[in-house]
Design a protein that fits this description.
This protein is mostly helical. The chain folds into 2 domains: 205 residues, no CATH class; 152 residues, no CATH class. It contains 18 helices and 18 strands. Strand 3 and strand 4 form a beta hairpin. It is globular, with a radius of gyration of 21 Å. It starts with 8 loop residues before the first helix and ends in a 10-residue tail after the last helix.
Amino acid sequence: MIDRRCFSATALLAVGGLAADRAAALAGRRPKRTTGATPLPALLDDLEHRTFRWFWDTGNPANGLVPDSWPNPAFCSIAAVGFALTAYPIGVARGWISRSAARARTLATLRFFDRAPQGPAADGVTGHQGFFYHFLHMDSGLRYGDVELSSVDSTMLFLGMLFAAEYFDQDHPDEREIGRLARTIYARADWEWFRRGAAAISMGWHPGQGFIARSWDGYNEGMMVNLLALGSPTHPVAANIWDAWCAPYPQCWRGSGDTRRLAFAPMFGHQYSQMWIDFRGIRDAAMRAAGLDYFENSRRETWAQRSYAIRNPMGWDGYSRDVWGLTACVGPADVEHDFKGTQRSFRSYSARGPIDEPDGYDDGTIAPTAAIGSLAFAPEIVVPATLAMHARYGPWLYGDYGFYDAFNPSFRWSDKPVQLGVVDPARGWVSRNYLGIDQGPILGAIANAKEDFIWRTMRRSGPIRLGLQRAGFTGGWLAA
């Protein structure tokens, strides 16, 4: 059973060095970057357990598929499966499930994807050219609706598989099969096909329509796509793809001095790649020229999100120095409404972030995963944010599987139909859903903040090391 204790924010702040870090944060100073394990309050342990249970309880044990969302699991998200494959070893390490149970669920997942039908047809398949469709039917595992063959969602699935291959390394027949299947499935992906003769990899492909025009270049979550494409043992792309990836960087820089950073408004763009890949102390040519690494870049962006909430240029309710965080998440509805004398647009599911950054959009919707998924970057401000959200909203925002996906304190209108949530006239709208791609960064960030759990495992991965080296990264653990 999950522990349903209440937590005192005041008592929990006095843990390890976090009290001093919080004092620095409140004074506007940035503590030194995190380089090792961080002692965390008990609420984070409870949140880690609840979030893990989401993956374990909602997944299909027969094929390992995990729903995009819960409690209305209409279809599987392959990215959520990648997060789930990463979650199972965390459950073993914490003593929540046995290694044999995690091994069985992992093996069921890999066997399904190994045998799943591939081909160019629109129906009756799971993928094509070694990649997989964004959403799948939970039972059959076949393409759901008219969704795209997704290069980035396939990448997150592959990263979960590669993590499993490194974690399950014992001399046991099932663990040997996990390693073999994970590497085989990843090796089938034809990255050069997805590059379609262009400078960069396409975001997706539809049967009968062809490739999506937008490509993975500039600074966003696509970093991991290019690194896995470079590290492929069978279909690697040319190393100059990293030049195409970095080419738009001049348009992405924001801030100056110790706030200068490559900006991307939704926080998930800074979290996804770095959940699996340890960028501390390693740099490519762009970061060597800038004098920082991508981990430091994400630490600065985490602080920038908090600063944006303090400034609150759009005047939304609920934003503060300890309640903040914008990313891709569910929202109240696709409607317009007058807010404090100004007509404002609201969205259901959407990417969100500071309006002065690339891809910025802000409708007052806060997602707990935006802050908590950055725990490993800046615990000195993320821990207070986690405690504050829990203390302020309690069970309204915190349920059986941790924090609900999102809430909007400004959206208090009962005359507007809302999606996937409820409206309270005093507290606003809150989702009653959990999304796998938002649960995953929470779980991964806690595990990495505690003990580098995912990072130190993935540092052993040959494709990760090769991809980084071919992209021009040097230093740090790559030099070992």
